[in-house]
Amino acid sequence: xxxxxxxxxxxxxxxxxxxxxxxxxxxxxxxxxxxxxxxxxxxxxxxxxxxxxxxxxxxxxxxxxxxxxxxxxxxxxxxxxxxxxxxxxxxxxxxxxxxxxxxxxxxxxxxxxxxxxxxxxxxxxxxxxxxxxxxxxxxxxxxxxxxxxxxxxxxxxxxxxxxxxxxxxxxxxxxxx
Length: 177
What we know:
alpha/beta; Glutaredoxin; 9 strands; 21% strand
């Protein structure tokens, strides 16, 4: 029996190590430095930046496609890493999220975490990207799958505070003349 336990334990350790490396490589391949919400909020207190939140679910095909295409694009990932703290938030997470002195929990009646419901203004659509300002206050959600060509103008609109002085439609007209 002891002869079986040691190889089995080594096999389990190898598997766990490999899975951890794969998870790290997965984020590295995409290029975006993904953080947990609490880490982004903590970092934002020390060195303020806007926060970008990718709200997804594990069953969402368009979310997976956005991971494989948009977020893996070097131009998108470089811009996100430079201008934002980026968070991947599973809308259905059962983890407790602390935000603005409030505790957000998973609610079975919503089939989502209260925090996702809050930042999506109750419009549960995946994927949705949400933007928070340097004070970690919501600026707004942008629902739907976005290609690189669609994502970059949106990132710029929020990162460079264009949203404060120009309507989205006016900004788009200028971008695509």
